[in-house]
Amino acid sequence: MNRTRQTHKDWGSPLGLALVAGMLAMVGPAWASPPRGSEAPRITLTGTDNSKFDSAQFKGRTLVVVFGDLSQDKLAQACADIDASLHDPRLPNDAAVPVLVVAHDPAPEALAKAREVGHLPRLIVTDPGRAAFGAYQIMVVPTVVVVGPDGKVVYALPSFAPNFREVLTEAVLLGAGKIDAAQFDQTLAHPANTPVSGPEARASRLTHLARELVRRGMPQLAEQRYREALAANPKSAEAHLGLGELLLDQDRLDAADDAFRAALELIPGSTDAMLGLDATAIRRGGEGLAKAEADLHRIITANPKLERAHYLSGLIHQQRSEHAEAAACFRRAYELLVEHGGSQ
Q: Is 284 found in the same domain as 189?
């Protein structure tokens, strides 16, 4: 579940209020997804060489995971920055392992060409179902997530972040135990690492502000900020998702659908976008319930720890007066929220 998701009327029961309370505590930096200190979702995927990749095998070492698309120019630069960061003289040899996660299985010739022009990691795995993209809540690509030896997220940042290479290097050093958290926080607090210009940075700031306005009960101002964010960067999936949740909260279902579909077009397979579309279908009721139920079953099968998916399933059972099934879904959603400690 997105750590900064807005609340909406689907969460109006006593259980829903408990879930909302947990989510409202999750507001943080606009691009910090997944959040620092959270348990990094396990990645089990197939490599482009047909080898099996399991992130659990790298516990005890720092893992640098870059989510990207081979067709993007920014990926080559991001991988070059990662390569430079991992060759920092303060890092021992093999202290960190880079891995690239792509959504599509690239043709051999396309992969060979990408390797020629970029500094791609040796480990490249494919995520055609976008399970890892969804579990890590990737909103923009390329995004790099540094996972520490303890399996927890050190830091996540997109390639457009200010002083990307510097911050990434410090995050890897933190993961490797070469600097402490206070030193890393000083790096983040430096004015040079605060986004000040550019459409992506402006959209990110406006989206974060919109979330704060929602949290403070000012939906009209929040909608204005979301729309300003999208005017600055129409490809901000994060802003589309936030706007969709806000519109859903106001029962503006057609507009909410449009926002979620825009996010889904930008990030095919986005779990958050699909959950938003399922929520609007549940709100409408009728024939859309069957499709929403199938979607939720597929989502829960791929990621059984998404509390919102269980909650929405409960709402479907509730509409059908299947009270025992609904209660079981609501209970599971609550258990997962407690298990996650409000961190996802």
A: no
Give residue-wise pLDDT tens across range 207-243. 878 887 888 788 999 999 999 999 999 999 989 999 9
Tokens read off for 247: 């519109």
Same domain, 165 and 276: no
Q: Are residues 185 and 50 in the same domain?
A: yes
Whether residue 85 is contained in a domain is answered as yes
In this structure, the answer to whether residues 80 and 155 fall within a common structural domain is yes
> 4 to each of 26, 137, 210, 263, how far by Cα in Å?
6, 11, 11, 16
Considering its fold, how many domains does the chain have in total? 2
DSSP single-letter state for residue 11: G
Q: What is the pLDDT of residue 103?
A: 87
**How are strands ordered across the β-sheet holding 44-47?**
52-54, 44-47, 123-126, 96-102, 62-68, 143-147, 153-158
Residues of the chain with pLDDT under 50: 1-32, 342-344
Longest CA–CA span in the chain (Å) reads 63
- Give residue 86's domain range: 44-193
Side-chain-side CA neighbours of residue 19 (13 Å): 30
